[in-house]
Amino acid sequence: MSAAGHGGAGARRARRGSAGAPSVERLLTGIAQLVTPAGPGAKRGAQQSELHVLEDAVIAVQDAKISWLGPASAWRGTAIEEVDLGGRAVVPGLVDPHTHLLWAGERYDDLEDRLAGVPYQRILARGGGIRSTMRATAAAGRDELLRASRRRLSDLVASGATTVEVKSGYGGSVEAELEALEAIAELGASSPVRIVATLLVHVPDPEERATRLREVRELLIPEAAARGLASRLDVFVEREAFSVAEAEQLLLAGREHGLDLTLHADQFNAIGGVELAVRLRARSVDHLEVSGVEQIDTLAQGDTVATLLPGVSLELGLPPAPGRALIDAGVPVALASDLNPGSSPLYSTALAMALSLRLNRLRPAEALVAGTVNAAAALGLDDVGWLGVDARADLMVLPEADWRALVHGMGGPGPVEVYAGGVRVDRDAGAETPRRS
């Protein structure tokens, strides 16, 4: 296919319509197959496999939003600029609702030890694991940390992500966590895609547990919320992290200060984190590798989104989260990369979706819903993850006419084009890439 057919400069021209017809900034044409979930909000049960498919479509963009979409034959407006997408499929921009991409240092020694059969507890005891990441992140300067984080974010965007959640959690003090959140804010201010900041209370210092809990409740959460550094609070509920009772204290403090709630739960042990998430009506509960029938039934009774992280199962050899059973029980399921240096060095949101077919037994349509509109619902967002009038013009252009190329291949479907607010933002966009306002 020619460069013009791929939406290059040669494909752009003014498009004229009839007098009095609507005029827009940009018109995306040549869409062989436009595929989207139906509107905002978490989809569950049979809805998680429902997609709207429109052939030979066009999308009109005005002020970063979709102002019109429909069959090309029905368009009567004018456009300042037209971009011919060359007969390819378009899906909503992917939403990655769980990442830890702000870190310094690497954990190559941990990988070799793990492959040699060294238990994680021994890796921690020698100073490896998350403790080594915390030390390296604390030692890194702001510029170094941001350079590395921008590279990782660029990888996620290249895979189709147009909304990315980023957590703190590698700081060992109130000051370090606030500095991490400040860095995330700076990352978001210079990013062409939306960044959602989450304050993560990750692992306690066993020697200062009570002090740490009090500081988080009384200092960190109020300060982060008051300064607008985070919109969400995440707590890791696990035997090696926080108990259900401790997590509840922290989450209630977060709610008191206006933060949305989410939890890491059931990664290694089912100790009540899922039940707590549903009881507190958290937006999402993430991991669920060891969730069983009781946890699935609990989730089915509530509105909390179950966010699956297949990269963790692949990397650590954990049982995959029960995606098939969750969907069959009517639980809304989302997907995320969980990009981090230890348990999921997965730099592709699209690959997380492809892995979910193989590991979590999702079907292609379910994976697309999980990676778009349900992932948006996990973040409390209603203007992304679907394509329709008044949604943000965040979308992914696939290299062929059948959207299933997105999840069929595990090395990516080939070169994709990514648009945020109707403007191309992937690595090949060149001078088109804007700074997001």
Question: Please, could you describe this protein's structure?
Answer:
With 437 residues, this protein is of the alpha/beta class. The protein has two domains: 4-92 and 386-432, Urease, subunit C, domain 1 (Roll), CATH 2.30.40; 95-378, TIM Barrel (Alpha-Beta Barrel). 33% of the residues lie in helices and 23% in strands. It contains 15 helices and 16 strands. The chain has helices at residues 108-115, 120-125, 130-139, 142-158, 174-189, 209-226, 244-256, 273-279, 293-300, 310-316, 323-328, 349-359, 364-370, 373-378, 405-408; strands spanning 13-15, 23-36, 52-62, 65-71, 78-92, 94-96, 161-167, 194-201, 232-236, 260-265, 284-287, 305-308, 333-335, 395-397, 417-420, 423-424. Helix 10 (310-316) packs across helix 12 (349-359). The longest helix is centred in the middle third of the chain and has 18 residues, at 209-226. The radius of gyration is 22 Å and the shape is globular. The model is unreliable at 1-20 and 431-437 (pLDDT under 50).
How many discrete domains? Answer: 2
CATH top level class name of the largest domain: Alpha Beta
Determine the CATH topology of the largest domain: TIM Barrel
* Rg over alpha carbons: 22 Å
Distance between the termini: 34 Å
**Amount of beta strand:** 15-25%
CATH homologous superfamily classification of the largest domain: Metal-dependent hydrolases
Number of helices: 15
Overall shape: globular
**If you average the pLDDT, what whole number results?**
92
Number of strand segments: 16
Structural class: alpha/beta
Supply the CATH architecture of the largest domain: Alpha-Beta Barrel
Q: Stretches where pLDDT falls below 50 for ≥5 residues?
A: 1-20, 431-437
Described by strand count, sense and barrel closure, the largest sheet is: 8 strands, mixed
Instruction: Give the helix proportion (percent range).
Output: 25-40%
